[in-house]
Each structure stands twice: as C-alpha cells, then as structure tokens.
Specification:
single chain, 455 residues, 19% strand, 15 strands, globular
Length: 455
C-alpha cells in the first residue's frame, strides 16, 4: 500500500487535497493530468489489482485443492492387475462390467489376432482403455431419462420404468383426434408441473403406418421446442429402409423423405439421436444430416443365449449380402457357416447352398427382416435337402404383412422351421404371434438400455 500511495502522489500530486489562500481555504478541483499521466494511472491500477489478486491466489488454490480432495479418491479404482485378461475370462465379471450382450466364451486371443495390426493390440493401451471404460460405465449408468412413448410402445415404457425406476420416468401421453381426423395430442410431463425442460427425453417410437408416423413427428417437434436437454428416439424398425433407391423416374425413395424429415427437426442444442436396429441398408445412416444422427445397433447379441440353449452348431445366411453383414458377429462362436443364394434353373430362380456344409447340423438361418418369407422358406428347404438335422430361423424384424406369419406356424404350408426367433421391434405384429408355437419373441428392453449407455 505504501508503494501504491507513492505512485498516486506522483501522478496526481498534492493538488487534489491542498487548500490555498487564493481560494480562501475552499478545496480546489484536481487538475486534469495530461494523457501520458492518465495512461500511467491505468497501468498502475492494473498492476495494483494484479498484486492483490496474486497475494491471495495461493490460499485460494489450497482451498480448492482441499475441497477437491474430499470428492476425489486418493488412488484409482481398484481393478485387477491384468484387467483385459480378467474381464474376458470371467463371465461373472463380464456381467458386472456390463458385457451382458457380448459372447462371454470369447477367447481373448481371437480379439488380439483381429487387432494384431492395430495400436489397440498393445497390452498397455488395452489395459488403460478398459480401466477408463469401467469408470465411464459407472458414470453413464446414472443418466436419467423422461420417457414419452407411442401408444403401442407404452407397455415397454412401463416395464422400463418398473425395472429401472431410478433412471426412467414414463409420462403417459394423450394421442387423441379431433372430429375432423387431425391430431389432438397432449404430451405428458408438462402438467401440472413442467418436469421436461432441461431433461434428457427418450421417445419410444413405432412407425407401423403413416398416420402414427406423422403424429410422432409432431411430438418430436414439440419436445425439441420445449427447452429439453436432449432427445433420443428409439425406433427399432426403420420401415422405409428397403426403399432407399429408385429404378425409374417418378418413384419416391421414401427413405430419403424420412431422412429429410428427421434432419430438419428443430435443434435443442445437440443433434437428435435416432437409435435403429439392424437397418436393412446401412447406407441409410448417411442420408441423415444436420440436426439428427443415426445410432445403428444390432439385435444379434440377444440371440447368443438362445443358440447355446438350442444346441445350434451352424449359422446359415439366405444370401451373400446377409453373410457379409452378419457372419463376423458369429465368428467368436466358432460355428459352421453356410451361405445360400439364388441361381437360375431354366426360367426360374432357385435357392441353393453356395458355401458350407449343413449335413447333420442344427442350422439357424439369420436375416434382418422377413416380409412374406418366400426366400427364407426356400433356404430352409434347401438346407434340409442337404442333410441338415434341423432348421430354425431368426429375423430381427417380423413385418409379416397380411398375417403371412400363419404360413410358418405349425400346420402351415411353410412350416419347415423348428423354431422361429424374432424380436419385439414391431409390436403390432409380434403381439399377435401365438404362444407355444414355433415363434419365440426376444425382448429388446435390456439391449435398448445397454445401447443407450454404451453405444
């Protein structure tokens, strides 16, 4: 303070406090210093403020460090010394570490071989990554969502809340219509108190017809304009995935139309996440841009336990496209792989086995979706003709227009399958499949929670 007083005295002099005879003792206004003195004054003020800041900075840093030490563990979380090996060798640790949807009998050496030409094969890199992954997984599991659901998805929303009440809250929505047929929708969570603003919103969607699709787009727009923190749309089946191209002018590529609608949704500050399972044509993800981004997932991991229980020892694909898409997912199971395909026989095309040997095997045919199922049926017939002990099928999405599933049920003219696995990605169809028949519907609920957190 003494130095600061000297500086002030030098710049302003004593004129600011002197009383003189000429003014009869009245205080005289300070004289206006020249510009160079004003500049020096500003520099002095800055230096003085900086000195005072630096004087208490060490104590402030010590206080902050003391506060942080109360929340920060003194050492990293305790993990096995060889976490990579332990995780992949211990099924119980896999479960606790949320490896639920990966094949637990996977040999770590297979993964290392697949990455032998990558930096990820470095044990230290893998070790550090897995340690960080455990910390990350504990953090993301605390994320809370407010759920809005399309009418057909409300049962799943209620089950989600019942299973994870600390993380998910379902708000029923009134999906009404005015007398003229236009939408009269009142979204839950806004009355009597608004509990949606500033929250992560999860919309369970189903686009099983054009009417409900438009209604759900209207809800998306409303939510994104309601000051929410983020919007995640779970749309397990993307119904226009097969219509991403046209072969003649005048046709409408509806996949492009949907992508335009998603991409031009309002922004809440971050892109809307669109969670889709086993999209038929993977390039559809690149049609989305701007305010929406596709998050592509697969249903295949939920099938692994069923494969083990049923004793399946051979995986078949109805065509080369399905093989290229799914075969690598089954590689850790080390099962026989068979690929079928269409060949021309005179004026007609028939399904034949082009690669692999199904003789004496319990075969499972895998594809992304089924419509009327003609190709799937012919593939099953061809496998049985080559000596397959049994043939079953799995499709992620059972479209089955006009109740065509009845042809695959017991007693149907296409009843060649011992079991027909599918998921509840299209509940309007799977809710009608008969229990105790060949159909087995696998629930996506746990996989959705997993993918929300880790994918």
């Amino acid at each position: 303070m003494h130095r600061w007083g000297e500086m002030q005295h030098f710049l302003l002099g004593n004129s600011g406090t002197r009383r003189t005879a000429a003014t009869n003792g009245a205080p005289r206004w300070p004289r206006i210093p020249p510009p160079w003195q004003l500049a020096l004054l500003l520099v002095a003020l800055f230096i003085g403020g900086l000195q005072r800041t630096l004087s208490f900075a060490p104590s402030l840093l010590r206080a902050c460090d003391a506060q942080l030490s109360a929340f920060t563990p003194s050492s990293p979380p305790t993990v096995p010394s060889s976490i990579a090996g332990s995780i992949f060798r211990s099924p119980s640790l896999l479960q606790t570490s949320h490896f639920k949807f990966f094949h637990t009998d996977m040999d770590l050496s297979l993964m290392s071989a697949a990455r032998s030409d990558s930096a990820l094969s470095d044990p230290e890199v893998m070790e550090g990554n897995l340690q960080e992954w455990i910390i990350h997984s504990e953090h993301v599991r605390k994320k809370r969502f407010q759920i809005i659901a399309a009418p057909v998805c409300e049962p799943m929303a209620r089950r989600l809340q019942a299973k994870h009440p600390e993380r998910f809250r379902f708000h029923p929505t009134h999906w009404g219509k005015f007398p003229d047929g236009t939408d009269n929708i009142e979204v839950g969570g806004f009355q009597p108190h608004n509990v949606m603003a500033g929250e992560h919103i999860l919309l369970l969607a189903s686009f099983h017809n054009n009417d409900v699709t438009l209604s759900q787009f209207q809800v998306m727009v409303m939510l994104l304009q309601s000051f929410i923190k983020s919007l995640t749309i779970v749309l397990p089946f993307y119904p226009v995935g097969t219509m991403e191209r046209v072969v003649k002018e005048g046709q409408v590529a509806t996949a492009n139309t949907y992508a335009q609608m998603f991409s031009n949704l309002p922004s809440c500050g971050r892109p809307t996440r669109l969670l889709i399972y086993d999209l038929h044509t993977l390039q559809n993800r690149f049609y989305l841009h701007g305010n929406s981004m596709a998050s592509l997932q697969t249903t295949i991991p939920i099938l692994f336990d069923e494969i083990r229980r049923a004793g399946v020892d051979c995986i078949a694909f109805p065509d080369d496209g399905a093989s290229k898409r799914f075969a690598h997912m089954f590689a850790p199971l080390q099962l026989e792989m068979v690929t079928c395909g269409k060949t021309r026989d005179g004026d007609k095309r028939v399904i034949t086995v082009q690669d692999g040997n199904p003789d004496g095997k319990k075969v499972l045919i895998v594809d992304d979706l089924v419509q009327t199922g003609g190709t799937l049926y012919e593939c099953g017939v061809a496998l049985k003709a080559l000596g397959a002990a049994s043939v079953s099928a799995f499709v992620a999405h059972s479209v089955f227009p006009n109740d065509s599933w009845k042809r695959f049920a017991r007693g149907g003219d296409r009843g060649v399958f011992e079991k027909f696995w599918t998921t509840n990605s299209i509940p309007t169809v799977t809710n009608n499949l008969p229990e105790g028949d060949v159909f087995v519907v696998l629930d996506l609920l746990d996989k959705i929670v997993y993918d929300l957190d880790f994918h």
